[in-house]
Amino acid sequence: MSHDPQSETESDLDEASGDSEAEELGVLDVREQVADISETLLGHPFDGITAVERSDNGGWRAVFEVVERSAVPDTQDMIGRYELHLSPSGEVQGYSLQQRFKRSELQGSEL
Up-side HSE of residue 36: CA atoms within 13 Å toward CB? Predict the structure, then answer.
């Protein structure tokens, strides 16, 4: 009988640790979430992510870009670069506009 309770306890521990791992976000999870959040939050089409990193509090900081105004040619698109802060579980904690520029101004400036 003592073997069964140990097995159940080990199983319970495995399930509990699996649940906590499932709740913890990784870089790819954050990238996907930022892509989903950005258009909803700002009302502009998502263009790309330039940075994702862990915050000191265990949450996440992401820098992403959206097309705020489309133009022809697309080099004249207005791009907004935003910083987004997420809790460790992925809830939006805040965001701010960091920069606004024409797509053509980006070429060669940060590569």
Answer: 9
The amino acid present at 73, given as its one-letter code, is P
DSSP secondary structure string for all residues of 55-101? -TTS-EEEEEEEEEE--SSGGG-EEEEEEEEE-TTS-EEEEEEEEEE
Backbone angles phi, psi at 37, to 5 degrees: -70, -40
Q: Are strands 92-102 and 78-86 parallel, antiparallel or unpaired?
A: antiparallel
Count of domains in the chain? Answer: 1
pTM confidence score: 0.72
Rounded CA-CA distance 89/82 in Å is 20
Within a domain: 63:
yes
The segments of the chain whose pLDDT lies below 70 read: 1-23, 106-111
CATH number of the domain at 75, please. 3.10.450
Please give the pLDDT value at position 106: 60
Q: For residues 80 and 97, what is the distance between their CA atoms, to the nearest angstrom?
A: 7
Is residue 13 classed as helix, strand or coil in its secondary structure?
helix
